[in-house]
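Task 17 of the worksheet. Students: predict the tertiary structure of the chain below and write it out as structure tokens. Keep your answer in the requested format; marks are given for formatting as well as content.
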Amino acid sequence: MSASDILVLAETVRGNLSGIVSELLGAARSLAHATGGQVLALLLSSDGTPFVPSLQAADRILLVNHPALAEYAPEPFLAALQAVVQAETPRAVLIGSTSIGWDMAPLLAAKLPAPLVLGCQQATIEDGHLRAVCGLCGGKMLAEVRIQEAPAILMILPGSFAPASGPGKAEVQTIPPPDLPGADGAGIVFRQWILPPPGDVDITSQDILVAVGRGIQQKENLEPIQQLAEVLGGAVCASRPIVDQGWLPTTRQVGKSGMTVKPKLYLALGISGAPEHVEGMAGSDLIIAVNTDPKAPIFDVADYGVQMDLMDLVEPLAQAIQARKK
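Model answer:
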């Protein structure tokens, strides 16, 4: 144990390691390089052994195995996490900005107690202090905070850090679980995952997304846009106003109140670029924005911008791509 170590909560969802874990390990490696400490990956589950190969970017992998940790429930998870943090005394604890993270991080911060940074986009060590940058007011402003106390709890925003990979020599340590509240079935109990409607796509797993906003003007314009997405081999997603109008289901919504996506290509059609939406797609590899307003905020985050009526572009672009494929 060392006050210079960086601890990562390796979250699992439906039997799979969460996609943000590799980013957390990347952020942890950068911080540990500055502190001179180690990267610790903590896995809470009924049996964490199958996940060990995916956590080799860490220096040490800590497994806490217990039947009560098979699926997420706040009481046993908090007790196990708190026990490990107090035993290891890390400099920082990194937790993903996910639905589980939003539940767990504030609980841990209150229980220890410890400082908590939400929506962390940058994290460095400067003059012995932990420096973190996070968004405020829905992403309209950025705040820089410096934390001297340890441990600091950072909720990492997806897409903020490069994923890490390791040499495959991490030390694996199984830690006996503490007494876990809720292990007897009392308290909050996991029942089931509520999945997207059958036949709908998981936009978080798509390499190409065609996103639509108010600029499409009417629901009927979704049809040619859907055709463009199919030609590109991607899927259609949307900003909140489109979902609020019932034109697309909530499973297609990108943004702070929707999904966080990181496709290889994000084609934004008629999206102004409200901070709430940008927070959910800023981690995309390539962003192309189409909007008639040259001052639209979406152009500030786009790699390429096109100022024109999106409907003048959609069908010709689909036809050109289709012809190129032939």
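Marker's comment: The chain has two domains: 6-175, 208-325. The mean pLDDT is 88.
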